[in-house]
Design the sequence.
């Protein structure tokens, strides 16, 4: 059982001992820490926080604990109930709220839950803000409201519909073109809130939605991370239903993957590539993804005359680089689309609408679209190191070894070779180096990873 406290929030497994798992006591403590930070940071008379959750079995319990802790601090709550991460992000500025909390462990299995913390813009907190909240929690530096000053909870279940309207009104979402295409799409909502939001969006866009695992009961029918090995059912159903393609989201709907018309994975990395291809064709500009994302986005960006930038891994880092470089679209290779014309957060509803518009305008199949993009394949491996080994020093040696290549040390060590790249990142919790590689064939990507593992062992003397 696990409790992970980080600058991006708190997540852990339900049950067990306090301080070792995400127990009710831990949920209250970190909600109070967030409230204390909010009141100190904003220094106002009244405070409002938007709270929503995915469909996890523990979600209702954790949400009640979090909301009523904030009420006890005199903070008013807008309760979205079952919602999505991007919907809460959109709701915070629409409500002129001071912040937001999403109760979700994203792609983790059902025994996990988490508090994801937002600022007044509906964006994830930065490292400095997150560190302050951890300090409040460690010191239990909380002041609660007197009885006449308690906060109030206001329920509002309209925000998924409001979010959908916001998506439909985006300039680059062509509702008429999508309706005219008469798409048929299978949706795997992994029995969470994507099963509410995505079919409802498709209906508004005139798309026939075939539902698979769209009952929001939190009983995940397969591992909720949208990877190929977990998606056999929808791959088969797309073919059986003669659908145009399939849509898969994770439990909180910020990661988006597609299945093509032949029942094959479109590839999480290519979700962002396809959406960027469409956006860049309509709006000239730059793109951003993290250092572990596919080179295909760089290729597509250059094709459209833009410039590509790589950030450190993590959504908050991608967002900051997008702002710095005035990117028109960006995201992460795990299927996370960030489109600033909507908001600075990964959003599967926005990604779905952009992808549908792109497909409708091109009038080709999803498999044909994938074939039009540069073919890249990734390998993701790790190497266990000896406890006590200085991993930072080892990574410095690896950077020096490849100094004649294109090397980035923004986040670990990334080496860009002419026909492939390697990204080495250390784990913060165990003596492991994660090794990501990409090349033009799967065999080459795997071989590059194996060769790099051998090199690391040689340099480390293990």
Sequence:
């Amino acid at each position: 059982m696990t409790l992970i406290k980080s600058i991006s929030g708190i997540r852990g497994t339900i049950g067990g001992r306090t301080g070792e798992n995400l127990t009710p006591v831990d949920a209250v403590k970190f909600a109070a820490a967030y409230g204390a930070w909010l009141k100190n940071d904003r220094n106002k008379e009244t405070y409002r926080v938007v709270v929503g959750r995915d469909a996890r079995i523990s979600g209702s319990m954790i949400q009640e604990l979090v909301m009523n802790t904030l009420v006890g601090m005199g903070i008013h709550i807008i309760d979205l109930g079952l919602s999505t991460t991007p919907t809460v992000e959109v709701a915070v500025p629409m409500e002129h709220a001071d912040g937001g909390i999403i109760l979700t462990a994203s792609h983790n299995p059902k025994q996990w839950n988490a508090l994801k913390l937002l600022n007044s813009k509906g964006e994830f907190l930065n490292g400095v803000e997150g560190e302050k909240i951890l300090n409040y929690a460690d010191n239990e530096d909380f002041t609660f409201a007197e009885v006449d000053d308690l906060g109030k909870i206001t329920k509002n279940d309209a925000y998924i519909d409001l979010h959908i309207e916001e998506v439909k009104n985006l300039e680059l979402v062509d509702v008429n073109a999508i309706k005219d295409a008469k798409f048929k799409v299978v949706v795997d909502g992994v029995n969470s809130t994507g099963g509410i939001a995505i079919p409802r969006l498709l209906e508004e866009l005139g798309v026939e939605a075939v539902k698979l695992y769209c009952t929001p009961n939190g009983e995940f029918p397969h591992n909720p991370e949208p990877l190929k090995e977990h998606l056999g059912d929808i791959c088969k159903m797309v073919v059986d239903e003669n659908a145009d393609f399939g849509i898969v989201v994770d439990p909180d709907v910020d990661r988006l993957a597609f299945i093509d018309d032949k029942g094959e994975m479109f590839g999480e990395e290519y979700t962002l590539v396809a959406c960027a291809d469409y956006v860049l064709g309509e709006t000239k500009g730059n793109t951003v993804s993290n250092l572990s994302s596919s080179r295909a986005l760089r290729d597509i960006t250059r094709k459209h005359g833009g410039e590509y930038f790589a950030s450190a891994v993590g959504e908050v880092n991608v967002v900051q680089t997008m702002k710095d470089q005035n990117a028109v679209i960006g995201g992460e290779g795990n299927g996370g689309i960030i489109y600033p014309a909507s908001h600075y957060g990964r959003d599967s509803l926005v990604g779905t609408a952009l992808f549908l518009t792109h497909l409708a305008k091109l009038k080709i199949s999803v498999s044909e679209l994938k074939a039009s993009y540069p073919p890249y394949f990734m390998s993701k491996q790790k190497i266990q190191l000896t406890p006590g080994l200085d991993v930072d020093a080892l990574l410095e040696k690896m950077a020096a070894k490849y100094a004649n290549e294109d090397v980035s040390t923004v986040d670990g060590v990334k080496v860009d070779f002419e026909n492939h790249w390697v990204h080495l990142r250390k784990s913060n919790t165990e003596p492991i180096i994660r090794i990501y590689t990409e090349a033009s064939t799967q065999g080459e990507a795997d071989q590059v990873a194996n060769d790099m593992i051998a090199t690391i062992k040689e340099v480390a003397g293990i």
